[in-house]
Design goal:
Chain lengths: ~325, ~325
């Protein structure tokens, strides 16, 4: 997928003038930080495509969120349709209209057709980005923070703390994600907040494993020992040295994890957990379309394509970041 | 050296994880709002009825007592009673588990059978058209929700083309008398395969894509290994190199990713079963949740955990078995 920057790995270190040696780590820290990441990503076509897709979806989601929270769908009604309310307010079920029916009549009021309540599918797709992206990012953030804390503490201290924490995350990991989130939401509440928390919890083991293995290998590095000998506190070492040093792999994993979270939450909404009607969400739209697969197959197609497009964006970006940030890759 | 001992060791290691799963599911199930007795008896039950039901399902005892008795019950193979089905939980699970296992196994078989050749071709023809196609297919595969693949397959292959049935599953070992239109066991197997095809692809695509990606990068690494260079220098034909030298080593990360994919696949089974209306473990847990059937929720969640743990143990053993550092001494 990737056209990595093509640089010869042997010449890499000399290019690293962006050394963030503020914490006294010297040249070891050269592949760390946002500026380095950006400079690498700019040279990687794949990562750039990923950035464009993710950026586009993020903007759409922001627009949807602003319209929802601030204007109560006023913008949607002005330029498109209300994504939640039935157009004729009678709450009756209508046969969904696919776009092929519209081409026949020569009218293209609804570019992607209407759903079983007469609502415009395109509008609902646009507003469905809000749920997908909110849950995707928030769940990843929860998993990232939780997993980083658990992994860093576990790897840094070792011993019984490590044992207890690792057995705990192993146990979480042993219950299939979807089943765990469903059980979690059944216990605490079937709404988006608990969907986010639940999906976030399933991501904790992923980041834990990543951070812990980095910490265990970094712990023995000379500059960490030096910091310790100089009397720097453990907390400071973890926060200022170890976590920043794991920036690249964590960034890659987090990007991929947003995609995974969006897939899980779409599955949850499909099963009736997650966003509740009438809030537009892609998984829920797919669930509603099941009753109309024969008369209006396109109703089932569009929300799936929206999910696919979004998740592909994050996967391309993740892959591209990995190639861009991994100096060993040269193929 | 003892593969049996290694297996035993892995099983022993799994015990704390299993206890952990029971603990998590128990406390989650007890957190569920609502009253299962009310669900059973309606809004205004008589006091005696309520007490009788509470006593029968042990709901009148304090939570720590119930936890300990549930734990010892599970150890003895008793998962409690399903309030909704009015049958032992284990009996319900034993009825549904084969369906889900069949679905899972066929999905992984499909995934492995397609991904390994795809990954090898990709690695051998790196950066050529075949490689690009295979990488795009696997990228789409890891980015597509399995239930949507199921919906699209139903629309195309069941509704439009009419090649496969849209719902249900038939077990290949079912009695021909119970299967419509089948008189012999062979016909039952054929019906079963017919029903299994679409759900298998829906559930297996993600695994296929993931395995292809890993297979490709593992083969790329492996083909650049010193031993491969040496074999080339000795003039060993390329096909022999791929088959004999590079392949086995490259399967180690593949096994790891299969183990990691188990969790996603088990969750995917819940969705696939919903799409194709298959009465397996996935539908069982959804039914249990929708009816606030505590013991069935706990039992099915626990069973999903067990399925995952057993799967991981099997992949670990396969890893130890394939790893050349373990088996190399046995070869020429």
């Amino acid at each position: 997928m990737s056209t990595p920057h093509g640089g010869d790995p042997d010449t890499e270190p000399t290019q690293d003038s962006t050394t963030t040696a503020a914490s006294g780590a010297g040249e070891v820290k050269s592949r760390v930080g946002l500026r380095y990441t950006l400079s690498q990503v700019k040279r990687d076509t794949t990562a750039l495509i990923g950035i464009y897709i993710v950026g586009f979806i993020t903007l759409v989601a922001l627009f949807a969120a602003i319209d929802y929270y601030i204007f109560d769908y006023a913008i949607a009604e002005a330029i498109m349709y209300d994504p939640e309310r039935d157009p004729d307010e009678v709450n009756r079920l209508l046969p969904p209209v696919g776009m092929e029916n519209q081409f026949g009549s020569g009218v293209l009021e609804h570019p992607l057709g209407t759903d079983h309540r007469g609502r415009d599918i395109f509008t609902r797709l646009v507003y469905g980005t809000r749920v997908a992206m909110t849950v995707g990012f928030m769940a990843t953030a929860i998993g990232l923070v939780g997993g980083t804390l658990v992994g860093a503490v576990s790897g840094f201290y070792g011993g019984w703390i490590d044992d207890v924490l690792q057995r705990f995350t192993e146990t979480i990991y042993a219950i299939p994600f979807l089943v765990l989130v469903i059980a979690f939401m059944t216990a605490f509440g079937r709404n988006l907040t608990f969907a986010m928390i639940g999906v976030g919890i399933t991501a904790i083991p992923v980041f834990n494993r990543l951070i812990r293995s980095r910490v265990v290998s970094i712990r023995e590095e000379d500059y960490i020992e030096a910091a310790r000998a100089a009397g720097v506190k453990d907390r400071h070492i973890i926060l200022r040295h170890i976590i920043p040093n794991s920036f690249a792999p964590v960034l890659v994993q987090a990007t991929l994890q947003v995609g995974v979270s969006i897939l899980i939450v779409a599955g949850l909404s499909f099963l009736g957990f997650g966003a509740q009607p009438p809030t537009p969400s892609w998984g829920q739209m797919l669930s509603q379309s099941r009753g109309y697969m024969l008369p209006a197959p396109t109703f089932s197609i569009w929300p799936g394509l929206a999910i696919l497009f979004t998740v592909i964006g994050f996967n391309i970006l993740g892959d591209g970041l990995q190639d861009a940030l991994d100096p060993r890759i040269n193929n | 050296m003892g593969l049996a001992r290694y297996t035993l060791w892995r099983v022993v290691q799994a015990v704390p994880v299993l206890i952990g799963i029971i603990t998590i599911t128990f406390f989650l199930a007890n957190q569920i709002p609502g009253d299962p007795v009310q669900t059973m008896l309606g809004p205004n039950p008589g006091q005696e009825q309520v007490e009788a039901i509470q006593a029968r399902y042990g709901l009148d005892r304090p939570i720590h007592e119930r936890y300990l008795s549930y734990l010892s019950g599970v150890a003895a193979g008793n998962l409690g009673l399903s309030i909704y089905y009015d049958r032992p939980v284990l009996e319900m699970i034993m009825l549904r588990l084969p369906v889900t296992l069949l679905l899972m196994l066929s999905a992984f078989a499909f995934a492995i059978a397609t991904a390994i050749p795809l990954g090898i071709i990709s690695a051998k023809r790196r950066n050529k058209p075949a490689d690009h196609v295979s990488r795009i297919v696997s990228l789409i595969g890891v980015s597509t929700p399995s239930f949507w693949i199921g919906l699209v397959l139903i629309i195309v292959f069941a509704f439009y083309l009419g090649w496969f049935p849209a719902r249900g599953l038939v077990l290949p070992w079912a009695d021909p008398a119970d299967v419509r239109g089948a008189e012999t066991q062979f016909q039952v197997i054929r019906t079963a395969a017919h029903h299994l095809f679409l759900p298998m692809i829906a559930l297996g695509t993600l695994q296929m894509a993931q395995i292809t990606r890993i297979e490709r990068s593992a083969m790329v690494d492996s083909l650049q290994g010193e031993y491969v260079k040496l074999a080339r220098a000795y003039g060993v034909p390329e096909s022999t190199i791929v088959r004999k030298h590079a392949f086995q080593v490259a399967q180690l990360p593949v096994i790891t990713i299969i183990g990691l994919g188990l969790s996603t696949a088990l969750g995917g089974a819940v969705l696939t079963e919903t799409v194709f209306e298959i009465q397996g473990m996935g539908r069982l847990i959804i039914t249990a949740i929708n009816n606030q059937d505590y013991e069935l929720i706990m039992g099915t969640t626990f069973m999903f955990g067990v399925a995952y743990v057993v799967g991981v143990i099997i992949t670990d053993i396969a890893y130890a078995y394939i790893d050349p550092r373990v088996t190399y001494g046995d070869e020429t």
